[in-house]
Specification:
Elements lengths: L1 H10 L8 H14 L16 H10 L3 H8 L3 H9 L16 E6 L3 H16 L3 E2 L8 E6 L4 H19 L9 E6 H5 L1 H7 L5 E3 L7 H9 L4 E3 L22 E5 L1 E2 L10 H4 L4 E2 L2 H13 L4 E5 L7 E2 L28 E2 H11 L4 E5 L8 H9 L6 E3 L7 H7 L5 H14 L4 E8 L6 H14 L3 E6 L7 H5 L6 H24 L5 E5 L36 E5 L2 E4 L11 H6 L16 E3 H7 L9
Parallel strand pairs: 1-2, 1-3, 3-4, 4-5, 5-6, 7-10, 10-13, 14-15, 15-16
Antiparallel strand pairs: 8-9, 11-12, 17-18, 19-20
């Protein structure tokens, strides 16, 4: 039975090889088997007994041995992706100036993935368009973290189906692709349920996009959702979609090993692997040279970063976890860690601000906190996702800490970084959550008093541990009632936290001008001039200028206003300023600190 498998692995150029020690141990056994009855144990000799078998099994190859040998190395994967398919013909992978329209949904990682996908397609001769009706190819970079996020994509596909059916016969057929986490999770359903989808590509398959599109052009559906143990796109420096942008995302690692019971990310983005530090610093330097004023380091578990590309650091000891925290996996030794990366990234350009997201509370050694405190260009803002205020629920979530350990970490962070701005994530109505558990979460919100919050009702995802081991037993109506209570408490406490900022001077990053139709004047004209601080005297400044503003309009809202932007109009109505709702409901217009405080809104205005 092993021979056919060996042929399959060998055909891919990845036939597994036995370690020399294993091969040596196996040879006598193989020779004995060739001797017929001489290979059988005789009575009184227990060489083939249970203990002997266990010893042989323990000394044999590990699962990791088979995985490492069965999966081709990253360089091989890259070569295979770049080699033309002989069935497609010469030049089939070239875009021939076909226009691509990309839409991104979900987290910042998807925004960065959109730039990676576009960079790869641009190299193949595709052109970018911002007008849907001009597109020859429409690609949606999707999110799968909650059911609502997936439903948005299904609704969008129905709209695109109408667009595809109205396509003029004189034009080339419109090709539609689903990329990212939803493609990874629902690949078969997408291809079969929505026949209009021509291709699906998982987060680790973007190098294969030119080939997938070439297959789609031949009239076939194409798919590649293979997850990689090594892919980081380290050699793909993203073409940032807005040349005049003042901020940018830089991906430093992909995947997650935490295996929280509610989370789909390990199943849609795979295991953790970190991008080489040299590649990251090269991109940060490039962005600095382009005039970017703020960089956000991205990863699903950003502060567990571990670069093992440098041989001399592979024996380094693993850093300790935050006090009272644990993991479901064994600590990995070796490699350059997040503290070193943050140190080096902040040195590239002292005038460029550095942020990072999303971290896990377990990975905050004192070295990281000290860097944040000491470096002026590392923003004094931390995301500490709690998820729940109940230790019982946290255990069911497999978060690796108790409420008491989390509270101790918050206190330590605030003592280490005076004036730090805190944000967090919370889930309402997780499996088995009681009313008492919910009230404990309410009390944690009041106790910590976060500046920014991301709160959602629990949505069970297939493949997760909760799906297989727990029951989604909290009724939907109860989930949403509890969510509304959490939001109300968060707003109340956030308004108090933000109220403490009234009358204080903050550093503001000007991102750009207001959208057409939202105001007749550029956003810069709404900012007070440092030479004329009166609100009635506007000043004009180019995008990217750092300004000192006191009260009044304080620039672009960098974070969420009440988590969704619904109350932006109410807040801005207090001072009559123009506003508009931007990407994912974030307020992108000028905001007034007094107005936001009066409305009880969460505010994060680029505070250092």
């Amino acid at each position: 039975m092993l021979r056919p498998l060996s042929r399959v692995l060998g055909a891919a150029g990845t036939r597994p090889r036995r370690p020399s020690s294993w091969a040596a141990r196996s040879e006598p056994r193989a020779c004995a088997s060739g001797g017929g009855s001489s290979a059988r144990p005789t009575k009184g000799k227990q060489s083939w007994g249970l203990e002997d078998f266990s010893a042989r099994l323990a000394a044999g190859p590990t699962l990791q041995h088979f995985l490492s040998n069965a999966a081709p190395p990253q360089e091989t994967c890259r070569q295979l992706a770049e080699q033309p398919d002989p069935d497609l013909g010469s030049g089939a992978l070239e875009g021939h100036k076909r226009r691509v329209y990309l839409e991104s949904y979900g987290c910042q990682m998807n925004v960065n993935d959109t730039e990676i996908a576009w960079t790869i397609l641009q190299r193949s001769g595709y052109l970018r368009t911002k007008r849907l009706e001009e597109a020859d190819v429409i690609l949606l970079v999707t999110c799968s973290v909650r059911e609502k996020a997936e439903q948005v994509i299904w609704n969008r596909l129905r709209h695109l189906a109408a667009l595809k059916s109205k396509r003029l016969q004189t034009r080339a057929p419109l090709r539609i692709g689903i990329l990212g986490c939803m493609a990874e999770r629902l690949r078969e359903e997408i291809l079969h349920r929505e026949k209009l989808v021509d291709l699906v590509a998982g987060p680790d398959a973007y190098r294969d996009l030119p080939r997938l599109l070439a297959v789609a052009e031949s009239g076939q559906q194409a798919a590649n959702v293979l997850l990689s143990l090594e892919e980081t796109y380290a050699d793909v420096l993203p073409v940032h979609t807005s040349p005049s942008a003042t901020s940018a995302f830089v991906s430093i690692m992909r995947g997650c090993d935490n295996m929280c019971s509610y989370c789909i990310v390990p199943f849609t983005r795979g295991r953790e692997r970190s991008r080489p530090m040299a590649s990251i610093l090269q991109e940060v330097k490039l962005l600095s040279d382009q005039g970017v004023k703020e960089v956000t380091l991205l990863g699903q578990n950003v502060n567990s970063y571990r670069d093992t590309s440098e041989v001399q650091f592979r024996a380094a000891a693993a850093p300790g976890l935050s006090r009272g925290f644990s993991t479901v996996y064994k600590a990995r030794e070796g490699g350059l860690r997040f503290a070193h990366l943050l140190d080096q990234a902040s040195r590239v350009d002292p005038e460029m601000r550095i942020r990072f997201t999303s971290p896990h509370p377990k990975d905050f050694p004192d070295e990281v906190l000290q860097l944040i405190r000491e470096r002026p260009n590392v923003c004094k803002q931390l995301h500490l996702p709690a998820q729940s205020g109940s230790s019982r629920v946290l255990a069911a979530m497999r978060r690796g800490y108790t409420r008491e350990a989390y509270e101790e970490l918050v206190q330590h962070v605030r003592e280490s970084i005076p004036g730090v701005v805190l944000s967090s994530d919370f889930i309402a109505g997780f499996c088995g959550e009681t009313e008492d558990d919910h009230q404990q979460t309410v009390s944690l919100l009041r106790q910590v008093r976060y500046n920014v919050g991301f709160l959602f009702a629990y949505s069970m995802r297939q493949k997760t541990r909760a799906y297989h081991r727990l029951q989604d037993d909290v009724p939907g109506a109860v989930k949403h009632r509890r969510l509304e209570e959490l939001i109300a408490v968060f707003r109340e406490e956030a308004s108090r936290a933000n109220g403490a900022l009234v009358g204080r001077t903050q550093l503001v990053l000007v991102e750009g001008v207001s959208a057409p139709g939202s105001t007749s004047h550029p956003l810069a004209e709404r900012l007070p001039s440092p030479q004329a601080p009166s609100l009635g005297v506007p000043g004009r400044f180019p995008a990217g200028t750092d300004l000192q503003a006191r009260n009044g309009p304080v620039g672009v809202c960098r974070g969420q206003v009440c988590g969704c932007g619904r109350y932006s109009a109410l807040a801005l109505g207090h001072c009559g300023l123009p506003w508009r709702t931007g990407l994912r409901g974030l307020n992108r217009g000028p905001v007034c600190l007094r107005a936001l405080v009066a409305a009880g809104c969460a505010w994060q205005g680029g505070v250092d």
